[in-house]
Design goal:
- One of its GO terms (molecular function) is metalloendopeptidase activity.
- This protein is an alpha+beta fold.
- It has 4 domains: 69 residues, no CATH class; 101 residues, Nuclear Transport Factor 2, Chain: A; 137 residues, Nuclear Transport Factor 2, Chain: A; 114 residues, Glucose Permease (Domain IIA).
- It has 11 helices and 21 strands.
- The strands form 4 sheets. Strands 11, 12, 14, 15, 16, 18, 20 and 21 form an 8-stranded antiparallel beta sheet that branches.
- A hairpin with a 5-residue loop joins strand 2 and strand 3.
- The N and C termini lie far apart (57 Å).
- The site of zinc ion has 5 residues, from loops.
Length: 465
């Protein structure tokens, strides 16, 4: 018993902002404590810690603190108690309701909300009323086994409030309002700290990134930042290397996944590119070279992520199906069916539909001079229709093999003033640089993170020599 309390306390003391309840060890006092709000729990266990410390010398065996979960997601998946105190309530009223005692019901395999309501002694009428709410219903329809849904009731035993952790960062909060319920999502405060990683490419960008401890989403973002300058489908070589300073997000003092890349350096075929993130005076974040040029061009060189060029731009190619000379006025990117296709630049959809050998096709008009075509799609992007404005990187469709195609691929065409140009070599106009009026602000904001990148990169190069 004593050991149990001490374990739960030591866990909450060693990570001051995070309290966990180890139900296995908690015993009857722990179970009683669990019925109070987290604030009470901390206060009471604080007293127990003193009691435990006073009695410690009588025990021969050294006490071992229970292992802390490594990440906040792991904590949630291991069914630990998540500290609701760290949510940011939108009002004093919500904060007060959150601090009142909750009745906890654990979701078991196959349980629905109806089962949880029944177990808590709540009426089917209350369940029906909650499920009328558009925010609450989709969350409560797919609750995760192992997690807890919590309830508060009024004097008549009717449901007055409900809460359920959606993920490590957000909790669904539902409250009675007359005969119906209103719902909202409460978010937790997220802190960030900079992290550094670097790697040299030996087989693939992903393998190198993973060996450096990077999450796939950071590797994707890195490729996105340098994707205008480096053709990741074709030009990546063994010995290329990168360094990256990125944000690690922390919730309740535990890692909660990566945030933004703050600065990065990529050396490809002996040429080094550098990028730094800058949030401009209007609050828009973009990546720039250290001297303020945009890392973006007005067009993506490649409108699909991580595809392989299966057929190049060639005005005298023998067509693989028709078996006669027919100009190939675009580039074919082989990728699995269903791979998203991005608008390569900002523009307006000028065509959506089926067009002979092209199969399902989308065309985008970019200002007066440029047009891009995307063919053989399996389906169109959500809301894509003629006349609609799209922005660079927006999903306009998915790779397929509709029309005259032997295997799933994107056929991509780039036209300048109505003339087909090679999408892989046509000079692309640059996106807007940092405005002249913001130059000083840009330098002040980016100098510290660039200095961090410099310092770490130098160490890495020295280590490799
Ligand atoms: Zn083609």
């Amino acid at each position: 018993m004593l050991l149990g309390i001490f374990r739960s306390v030591s866990a909450s003391m060693s990570q001051a902002s995070y309290t966990v309840k180890h139900s296995r060890d908690a015993g009857p006092i722990g179970r009683i404590l669990a019925r109070f709000g987290a604030r009470h729990y901390i206060a009471i266990t604080g007293i127990s810690l003193i009691a435990a410390a006073l009695l410690l010398p009588e025990r021969d065996e050294p006490l071992q603190a229970a292992p802390l979960p490594a990440t906040i997601e792991q904590a949630l998946n291991e069914h630990e108690r998540i500290d609701f105190d760290l949510l940011l309530p939108p009002s004093e009223h919500v904060a007060e309701v959150m601090a009142m005692p909750w009745q906890q019901v654990k979701i078991s395999n196959g349980d629905s909300m109806a089962v949880a309501f029944k177990r808590a002694g709540l009426s089917a009428q209350d369940l029906h009323a909650v499920m009328q709410n558009d925010i609450a219903a989709p969350v409560l329809r797919k609750v995760m086994p192992g997690r807890h849904v919590e309830f508060q009731t009024d004097e008549e035993g009717r449901l007055s409030a409900l809460r359920y952790p959606i993920d490590s960062l957000s909790t669904l909060f539902v409250e009675r309002e007359g005969d119906s319920f209103r719902a909202q999502t409460l978010e937790k405060a997220v802190a960030t700290r900079p992290q550094f990683a670097s790697a040299t490419i030996e087989s693939s960008l992903f393998a190198a990134g993973q060996s450096a401890g990077l999450n796939d989403s950071v590797i994707m973002e890195l490729a996105g930042i340098f994707g205008y300058d480096i053709d990741f489908a074709l030009d990546l070589r063994v010995g290329d290397r990168f360094s990256v300073v990125y944000e690690e997000r922390l919730v309740e003092g535990l890692p909660a996944g990566p945030g933004n890349i703050l600065a990065a350096e990529f050396t490809n075929l002996g040429k080094t590119f550098r990028a730094v993130r800058y949030v401009d005076a209007n609050g828009k974040a973009s990546y720039y070279t250290p001297d303020g040029h945009s890392m973006r061009k007005a067009f993506l060189r490649m409108p699909v992520p991580f595809a392989r060029v299966s057929s190049n731009f060639n005005l005298s190619r023998k067509h693989p199906i028709l078996n006669r000379i027919r100009a190939h006025k675009g580039v074919d990117y082989a990728a699995p069916a269903g791979t998203p296709i991005y608008a390569s630049g900002d523009g307006k959809i000028s065509f959506v539909g089926t067009k002979g050998g092209y199969g399902r096709m989308v065309a985008i008009q970019h200002g007066g001079n440029f047009t891009t075509h995307y063919a053989h799609l399996s389906r169109y992007g959500k809301g894509i229709s003629t006349g609609k404005r799209v922005s660079q990187g927006q999903v306009i469709g998915y790779v397929g093999s509709s029309g005259l195609a032997t295997a799933p691929h994107l056929h991509y065409e780039f036209l300048v003033n109505g003339v087909h140009r090679n999408p892989r070599t046509v000079p692309l106009p640059q996106a807007e640089p940092v405005p002249a009026a913001e130059k000083d602000r840009f330098i002040a904001a980016t100098a510290p993170v660039l200095a961090t990148l410099d310092a770490h990169s130098r160490i890495m190069v020295a280590d490799n020599q």
